Structure prediction request, 577 residues.
Amino acid sequence: MLLRLLVRYLRPHWKLLVGVVAFQLLQSFASLYLPTLNADLIDQGVVKGDTRYIMTSGGFMLLVTLGQVVCSIVAVYFGAKASMRLGRDLRGALFSHVGEFSEREVARFGAPSLITRNTNDVQQVQMLVLMTCTLLVSAPILCIGGIVLAIQQDLGMSWLIAVSVPVLLVCVVLIIVRMVPQFRRMQKRIDQVNRVLREQLTGIRVVRAFVREDIERERFRTANERVTETALKAGRLMALMFPTVMLVLNLSSVAVIWFGAFRIDDGSLQVGTLTAFLSYLMQILMGVMMATFMFVMVPRAAVCAERIGEVLDTPSTVVTAAHPVTELAEHGTIELFEVGFAYPGAEAPVLSDINLRIEPGQTVAIIGSTGSGKTTLVNLLPRLFDATSGQVMIDGVDVAELDPDVLWSRIGLVPQKPYLFSGSVASNLRYGKPDATDEELWRALEIAQAKDFVQAMDGGLDAEIAQGGTNVSGGQRQRLAIARALVKRPEIYVFDDSFSALDLATDARLRRALREREKGPTFVIVAQRVSTIADADQILVLENGRIVGRGTHERLLETSETYAEIVSSQLAAEAAA
Prediction:
């Protein structure tokens, strides 16, 4: 999976990779050339006392070193650029793909895990690419070239290379094998920390209302300590790697000097040759050590790549048709034929045998007990997920055959839990219609009974809205969400229990304004209060995912026992109040 991701997302940036390889090659060849120059300098200049040769060779070595530094800087620059672009492309691909998910896929992965995969996981792959671009070319060249040139310098001591390199590789492999499961566990535990933290921040009011601060602190402490425990285990292994490498490297240096001293003493080896051999051995072991830097990151990056690939390889259950319909003859018609819906693994379907036709301009209300399937039913209209059986048709066309942009442009959805984005009141209202004028925004606010409190806010339309709308009350948040749908001016409005946070007087004024100012669109209203839907053209009563009553308010009072019970219970509650 890691290799597949790298090939796929680095292919467009092949020019940068070519630049990295070219400059890494130049740097590596310069590194290999310097010990030979140094050996000649010692043997020809230092030993013979030739000052001119020393100055000439030393100056040339300085030029080679300067070129090596320049090549290294350019290679790292190109490598950093390639890795940053890879991260950008990966995050963009993840965000785009997750944006196509239905609610089913989002619920399967969970928001905290998706956030971690798009941030921390991508960063780990990104860092691996940077290290790879920096070390992948030079490390093997230093190893292979160093071995060849060291043998050329003195074949008699080449057995030291044959011993030290395998010992170093065995030590590194043993440590890395133990690190892989720790990194896999770490990413899952980071997900858990994100999940707990997100729950606590989102539900801070509930936490305080039930005096659960100590318990929530303990939950976070437990999740945090589990991450710390795993990170420490991985860190200890990582910390063990570098002393091990340095131990082998230093022991090899001592061995070369020890055995080389005897060779120099008997006249079979020159001082410059010993220096060059020692330099090449250091380069070989440094190449191996540089490769270990990359190998340290490979296990964690591989785990992260698997998690990223899992998201990218998961198809959305809501798929756009091969040849979607983009033009519709009807306007505001909704039809459902034998519609059923069941969540994966559920024992019973949420909806069964739903048959319904809504004519343009009608107001249809849906009421029922909690868990009867009201929200699921209206979520099928904008195709937040697909029905598992039957057909959902908008303006005479199955929603599965409609172009998604055409479908969503015709529906204005106000969800059960209204959400506002960070920005201003105006930016939130223009979410569905970016070119809406201020007059259109004020008109929508007036209908939604939000004009007065927006005018009272500091800045009016430019007043700041916090993420999630946490700086306005629940009722104000609902009215702004309703106004946002009104600005869009769709042909079908879907209000999913959107009036529950409003008092009866505001609810009545808002519905009256909708009838008077928004003539023509089709309205689908999910509500709990009978007073909100009493004047609807048709009321559907849902129970256990089935329609058990349908008709006007007066007719249902006579024919539907379930509806009559709902009405009587609410009247009794009002009387008791």
Notes: Residues 95-312 form a domain with the ABC transporter transmembrane region fold fold (CATH 1.20.1560.10). DSSP finds 20 helices and twelve strands in the chain. The chain has a mean pLDDT of 83.
